[in-house]
Backbone:
């Protein structure tokens, strides 16, 4: 009898916890024109001591062929003016460049409460994208207006010869000064410092980041931001692909076109940048194992994609 009572009590606790956790999704507007942007809002209702461990935004929006995820905004703590209830709000910016009706599936949230992990899935939303009607509100082409000239229009023609003469005498003066300086001083040879390869620079920065022990000192957000920045700088130096200023969803397609980038290393980079974005913008709190894994993935990505220099040796006439 006691076991049955405990079982019923446990089930009721789980149901009560699930009842406290809920995710609602809605759009700013249900209809847009091709190329317009719209916000998708996710209201997360959960106890104040609960934590969001992971959000599957990436997988959901990658599965949509004609809907692009442009930006993930920071998680906000909201208090309802009507009911006084507190909840969290996460907003995403999306767009579409093809007309049609698109169903955005529910997004799964992993939420930890009382040392237990719960999954909450939002409702799906429907977005209608309409083509632009170019036949409406088009005005006829107007004739080019002739503007009357005044004396100021001719002033620039008179100034050109004067500027050219002054520039010529200035050139002669500077050249004379340079000759005099060379005759009095010996030229100092310029020391050219060798440029380190991109992978060595990235490895050195990762080594320095480890020594700072950021996540060990509760600077988790800064730690993930630095890992992401080091990888982005390495991509620009190694593959000459814009990465520091671009968002993750622009970097991956551009880097995918590079002939030296394979699928395995591209997936490793995607995981690094996505995990960093979730910590920076969605306030996800990974565990210590995840902290160690992201920098190990960064080391492995740099090592696997470093540029291999082929050293050519000189041979004598006999081939020895």
Residues:
């Amino acid at each position: 009898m006691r076991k049955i009572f405990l079982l019923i009590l446990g089930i009721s606790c789980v149901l009560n916890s699930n009842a406290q956790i809920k995710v609602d999704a809605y759009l700013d507007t249900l209809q847009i024109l091709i190329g317009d942007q719209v916000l998708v809002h996710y209201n997360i209702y959960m106890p104040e001591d609960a934590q969001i461990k992971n959000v599957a935004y990436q997988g959901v929006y990658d599965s949509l062929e004609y809907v692009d995820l442009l930006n993930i905004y920071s998680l906000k703590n909201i208090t309802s003016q009507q009911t006084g209830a507190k909840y969290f709000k996460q907003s995403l910016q999306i767009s579409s460049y093809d007309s049609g009706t698109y169903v955005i599936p529910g997004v799964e949230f992993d939420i930890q409460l009382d040392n237990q992990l719960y999954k909450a899935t939002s409702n799906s939303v429907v977005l209608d994208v309409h083509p632009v009607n170019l036949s409406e509100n088009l005005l006829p082409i107007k004739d080019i207006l002739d503007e009357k000239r005044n004396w100021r229009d001719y002033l620039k023609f008179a100034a050109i010869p004067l500027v050219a003469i002054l520039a010529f005498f200035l050139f002669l003066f500077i050249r004379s000064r340079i000759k005099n300086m060379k005759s009095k001083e010996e030229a100092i040879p310029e020391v050219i410092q060798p440029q380190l390869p991109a992978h060595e620079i990235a490895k050195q920065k990762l080594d320095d980041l480890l020594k700072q022990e950021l996540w060990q000192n509760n600077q988790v957000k800064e730690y993930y931001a630095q890992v992401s920045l080091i990888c982005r700088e390495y991509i620009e130096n190694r593959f000459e692909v814009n990465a520091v200023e671009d968002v993750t969803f622009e970097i991956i397609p551009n880097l995918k076109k590079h002939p030296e980038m394979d699928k395995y290393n591209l997936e490793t980079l995607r995981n690094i940048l996505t995990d960093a974005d979730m910590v920076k913008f969605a306030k996800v709190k990974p565990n210590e194992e995840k902290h160690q894994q992201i920098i190990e993935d960064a080391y492995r990505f740099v090592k696997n994609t470093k540029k291999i220099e082929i050293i050519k040796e000189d041979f004598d006439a006999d081939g020895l």
